[in-house]
Structure formats: C-alpha cells, structure tokens
Design a protein that fits this description.
alpha/beta; Alpha-Beta Plaits; four-stranded antiparallel beta sheet
C-alpha cells in the first residue's frame, strides 16, 4: 500500500501499474475504441486488430472489454504467444470444455465447429481475445486465420481480436500473411497521450482513487512527466507514483516540477530522456578541453615536466577523525515459511479461475494471505456457497467493487468430495473485536443479504 494515501486523502493507490478496470481512462480515443470493439464483436465483423506500444494500456482495454460484453458473448482469452499451430487449437477447444483426441488436429477442429454451431443456435456468441499476437509464429497465426473461417452459410461462428505491439503490423505485412491481413476488418491504434490528455489522465486517476481536492499535479510537472513517459500510460503511472511519494516525503500537497524531476531521475527509463542543460554541457566541454590541453603540453614539454599552472589555494585540512570500524553487512532475514501445507496448496490450485481476471487476481491475493496471516488474525465472512461457478463469482466481484474496496475481498475455494464451495470474506483484522466492528460498517446491502461473521485465519486454514 502506498505510503502517501492518507496524506492525499486517497482510499487506494491511484497509479498502480497492474490493470484495474475501475481506472479505465476513456479519453485519448480509448472510450471510442472500446465502443467500436463492442460493436464489431456483436455484429460479426471478422478479425479485429488493436496495436499499441508496450505500456499503452492494451491489457486494461482487454479486461474492460471482457467486462462490458453482454452475457450472451462467451470470451476466450489467450495470453501465450508461444502456442504452436496445434496447441492454439487445443487451447480454444479446452476453454470451451470440448473433449477430443489430440492425435489429429482435424478432429479437434471439427469438434470445435460442431460446438460453435450449437452455441450459435442457442443465441450465444464466442470471441477469442489473443494477447501478444505480434510474437506468435507464422504457422500459429495461419491457424488463427483458419479458425476465422468457421462459419455457417450466413454467419461467422467465431470472432477474433488480436492485441499486439506495432510489430504486429510488420508481421501481417509479410507475403505469407496476406490472407490473414485481408480478413482484418477493423484496425485500432493505442496512441500515446498528449500533454493535455496526460493532465486529464492524472486527474481522472486521482479522482477514481478517492481524491477530492484541487488538482495535485502542476502544469509544469505534467509537462515533464508526459514528455519523459513518451505519453505511455504505464510510464506515466510510474512517474506519478514516484512524484506523489516525493511530495509526501517533503510534507507538501502539490506535485511541482521539483518532484517530477526527482521521479524522472529515479526511473528506469530516465536515460532515454534528459532535460537539456546547455550551460552545464558547455562547462563540461570546456573543462575537458582544458584538461586535454594540459596533457598535451606536458607530453610536448622538454624533459616531460608538466607545465606549472597558476597556484591554487590549498584546501583546509579536515580534522583527523579516528577511523570507524565498518559495520558488518546486514544479513537478509530468511523468507517466512508458508503456513499452508502442500495438500492445501494442491486443493487451492485445483479450482480454476478460467478466463475471469478479477477472480484470478483475488484468488492469488487470498492464497498470499492464507500463507502468511497468523492464526489469531481475523477476516469477516460474507457468504459460503455451494455454487462455485467461476462466472458467478466474477459477477459477484464486479458488483462488490462498487460497494467495498475490492483488494479487501478474499475468495477461498473449499474442496470436498470432488466438488468446490466458495467462501467469500472481507478484510484482515488484528483481532476478533476489530473484525466485528468492521462487519457493522459494511454497506447495508451486505448486512441485509449476508450474515457477516468474524472468522480467524486459523479456522480458514483448518477448513481447507
């Protein structure tokens, strides 16, 4: 958790680099691109391509797209660019719960087509979202083209959206990719933010995180951040976060050029951009020239004596100080052992989040808590359900984030008899009384729908 939250009146960190759909910025054509993608997918517009630089917001756009698609559209998200031609076919079939033999890819393709026809007849549609498409082998992309050919006499059975870096355009420009390129009906580009758009972006992220005061980032700070980040949202997030931390450490509530410069100097990509300092550059060049002249004069002087320069006042000697023995190098403490046993981890890993990003994120956070929280720490039970359908849990999480901070919601899958139950909990508290007080502060909707009860982490682990 960022150190500056209370200082700026924030309820959560505004500039995390992990995709968070609550922080989707619809400026700079992002909102228009999202609407166009929704339209293209629902109106069977063939293959769609989205291109953008690293850190331009493609993954966040993809997650928002998954959330905004209507319920009758089933999404398959593929993030592995190293799939072979057959592996991508098998991956799609497995996502659709199709049982088939891996001995012949043609059998799998036929089974997939039959399932898609049945799905279409039920009024449902299927879309494949392929990330990092620029890194896929040509044979795999050719298989993507063949998948796009699955259709009835009048309708496409499968929509495909390719997300990739600008290299994707180069790949599609190869002679062997001409047939795939011809099937791309819509192409969108995630362009960098302008300085004005960056200012709106910074304000939006701060407001989305709960800030209610005047704009924190001064125009000169925005200009420095936008330029150093090359307009890429991920870099803007990194620099904005470091700038807020610098302001917090100085006890001020505005980010000016001073804090922005400190953030840029501390960033990994700072060497790609430097503020111009012509006077300093000329001074450095002059000093280097003087040194070179002295060296040459010494080399050419008879007898090799260095020419005598004008006398320079000797520096005042510092008082002698007894040497201080070097402190021993600190030894890193050993990593804490997990409080979960191997069979617990196996049972937790047996429940699949499938293609649901919020559920996948909360399962990982829950596991981390179960591995580290002491037995006498508590959480608040929201509900325990026999319905473990990942789609249902994802819908619960989508609704939950409008009522409570989603990073405080934990999902524990409990396995028994080959089936899973879902335990939804809220928060982490030092003792039972703190958990009870937190339960009384939950939204009235939760207090009416659930019966919030404190549960210790020791109890949670025993239930696994």
């Amino acid at each position: 958790m960022a150190l500056y939250l209370e200082h700026f009146g924030l309820r959560e960190a505004p500039f995390r680099i992990t995709p968070h759909t609550d922080f989707f910025f619809d400026g700079a054509d992002r909102g228009a691109t999202l609407e166009a993608l929704l339209y293209a997918i629902q109106h069977e517009e063939g293959i769609v391509k989205v291109v953008g630089e690293v850190g331009s917001g493609k993954t966040l756009l993809c997650r928002v797209l998954i959330e905004r698609l209507p319920k009758h559209v089933e999404t398959i998200y593929l993030a592995n660019p190293s799939f072979t031609r057959d592996e991508i076919l098998y991956a799609v079939a497995e996502e659709m719960k199709i049982e088939f033999s891996r001995e012949r890819a043609t059998i799998a393709l036929r089974a997939l087509q039959d399932r898609l026809i049945a799905t279409y007849a039920e009024g449902r549609r299927t879309v494949i979202l392929i990330d990092e498409a620029h890194a896929m082998p040509e044979d795999t992309l050719e298989q993507v083209r063949l998948l796009s050919n699955l259709e009835t006499s009048r309708h496409k059975l499968l929509q495909i959206v390719l997300f990739g870096q600008p290299e994707l355009d180069e790949v599609l420009g190869l002679p062997g990719m001409r047939q795939l390129k011809d099937r791309v009906t819509h192409s969108f580009r995630m362009r960098p933010l302008t300085q004005a758009e960056a200012a709106h972006y910074l304000t939006f992220r701060m407001r989305a995180a709960g800030y209610r005061g005047p704009d924190v980032f001064a125009p000169d700070a925005v200009a420095l951040i936008a330029r150093a980040a090359s307009g890429l949202s991920r870099r803007i997030n990194i620099l904005a976060d470091k700038s807020l931390l610098a302001a917090f450490s100085e006890g001020v509530h505005a980010v000016t050029a001073k804090q922005a410069r400190a953030a840029i100097a501390d960033s990994e990509f700072a060497p790609r951009w430097r503020a111009k300092r012509p006077l300093a550059a000329f001074a450095a060049i002059g000093a280097a020239g003087l040194l070179l002249g002295l060296v040459l004069a010494w080399m050419l002087a008879p007898g090799g004596e260095a020419p005598r320069a004008a006398p320079i006042a000797a520096p005042v000697a510092a008082p002698a100080v007894a040497p201080v023995p070097a402190a021993p190098a600190p030894v890193a403490p050993p990593a804490p052992a997990s409080l979960l046993q191997r069979e617990h981890l196996a049972r937790l890993g047996g429940y699949s989040a499938e293609r649901y990003p919020l559920l996948r994120e909360r399962l990982a956070a829950t596991r981390a808590r179960l591995e580290s929280e002491p037995d006498d720490h508590y959480s608040v039970e929201l509900y325990l359900s026999d319905n473990s359908d990942p789609a249902r849990v994802e819908r619960f999480l989508i609704r939950a984030r409008d009522l409570v901070p989603l990073e405080q919601v934990y999902i524990v899958p409990l396995e028994g008899g080959g089936r899973y139950r879902i335990w939804a909990l809220f928060g982490v508290f030092a003792d039972q009384e703190a958990a009870r007080r937190a339960a009384l502060q939950l939204p009235p909707k939760y207090q009416q729908a659930f019966r919030p009860e404190p549960r210790s982490f020791g109890e949670l682990r025993r239930a696994l």
